[in-house]
Fold:
Amino acid sequence: MTVKQKPQNKPGKRDVLAQALMEGCPVDQLAARFIAAGYSEKAANYEAGRAMKDPLFAAGKRLGNQVKKRDWTLDIYRRLRRSEAGETTDIPVVDKIEPDVFFADYYHRNMPVKLTGLVDHWPAMDKWSLDFLAGKMGSTMIELQGQRLSRDDYEIASNELKRNVTFADFVAALRKADSSNDFYITANNDTVNKQALAPLWDDVGEISLLKPTGANDGFFWMGPKGTITPFHHDLTNNLLLQIAGRKRITMIAPYDSAHMRNHKHCFSQWTSPDEVTAMGEHAPKLWQCDIGPGEALFLPVGWWHYVVGLDLTIGMSFINFRADNDFYTGYLTETEF
Structure:
């Protein structure tokens, strides 16, 4: 007796077409894609012919070709700009940079640079210790990112992880934590903390590269050793500076974006620099530097970066440069690609 085999589930026709478009399948190989998906040769030829007459499929192919052209253009820059000095590229360091040099050589060229001598005059550099902050701000209610370890997507889910605590309780948690990525005050807590921490802004002075519009234009960051900001890119140029502790920043240039597994908004699915280098010869080039107290890093718009706290850290970041920094108007706002 012959037993009939139960037919295997095969993807829908539109699903096959969509996947073919996403992978850049040549038109003359469409029928083969249908056959590989479980369709008969006759059905595959029919669906391939039907697809080639579909205006939506044709529009998708045109869009796919445009994306390929852009990736090809970016790859030109990638090949021309890649360093031959190994897997990690050093970021230049400049002390007491003049604004005209900064904007000409780095800002307008979209190149990172580590800067020293910008904030030596800030009272915060001498005053902001755990004891000082706990004494001055201890009863103040602040906002932080909490229970981050409960979510793999803690950065994407930052709005859901907002927690309110007193500054004294926050400092007590810092004293207990040897290393942790579970709690962290970040720029995502700025709406509450800008007002809550207002008494601290008298300890923050001007920076020659920024518009003199007030110290509270900065974003306050503070957390234990071990905090991680996963790979993402910003929609503005950013100046990241340290008041206490050290951070290690690993960066990837925008021309490597096609290799960044960008799945949502400005975030990457890569979970660490080691995971990126494991790609081998096709891996994006890593640029890396550490910044410590009194040092700053210029993070150009569009550059991917991964940040880890090497110590308990206190810092600020700024975007109010003395130059156009509106790169978010018109940005693609869909949360998934």
